[in-house]
Amino acid sequence: MSRTFACLLLTAVVLPAAGCATVATGRFGNPSGFADTSPGKLEQVALRTLMELRFNIVLPQARPGLIETEPLTGSSWFEFWRKDTIGRVQVAESSLHTIRRRATVSVSAQDGGSQVAVRVIKERLCAPGSTPGSLGASFNSYETEDTELMRRDALAETEYQWVEMGRDELLEQYILERIHANLGR
After folding, report:
1. What is the DSSP-derived secondary structure letter of residue 102?
2. In terms of CATH architecture, what is 25-132+157-183?
3. Residue 100: what are its φ and ψ, rounded to 5°?
4. In the structure, what pLDDT confidence band is assigned to residue 65 with cuts at 50, 70 and 90?
5. CA dist., res. 46 & res. 178, Å (int)
6. Strand runs (DSSP E) across the chain, as ranges?
């Protein structure tokens, strides 16, 4: 009986985790072209889409056709209504660590229509000397050797820094999907 229970438990743990390692399917090209849409209208739709995701827009804009956002701290398990963290692995990561994302949307004219390119950069807040070498190392909280975090003076101020973790292609695809959907309205 306990062997059956152990097999069921293992299946319940492994099957959902197998779907966590998915990569963005690239349903929409990035950059994505719109044949019958003016760059001005596409820029307004992209701006509205970013604001729906609760990104704050950097104003004034650096140049027409370029929308930059301020960093937005990623949502956790308990913030299920927010849509700025895509995928179970990303939500788990944002729940365990302080993660933020910055989005840049570029709109330009192309062959009588327009084109949009989305770039989302993900960063993690780290203490000096504690930057993980891999995703597995970032979850290792039971290491017993001395680190920068285990210092003699617990009241000394720590200078935290944001470490770039690369692009968030899942969120880029979601933003493109929302832009396509909002243009249809």
Report:
1. E
2. 2-Layer Sandwich (3.30)
3. -135, 160
4. confident
5. 9
6. 32-34, 66-68, 72-73, 99-110, 113-126, 161-167
- pLDDT value for 5: 53
Query: 113 phi and psi, to 5 degrees?
Result: -125, -140
**pLDDT tens-digit readout, 81-116:** 777 788 888 888 888 888 889 999 999 888 888 899
Helix (H) or strand (E) holding 173: helix 169-183
Decide if 109 contacts 45 (C-beta within 8 A).
Answer: no
* Cβ(173)–Cβ(167) below 8 Å: no
Distance CA 77, CA 91 (A): 6
- The pTM score is 0.68
- In this structure, are residues 22 and 87 in contact, taking their beta carbons and an 8 Å threshold? yes
What string of H, E and C letters represents the secondary structure of 58-84?
Answer: CCCCCCCCEEEECCEECCCCCCCCCCC
Residue spans per domain, the chain: 25-132+157-183
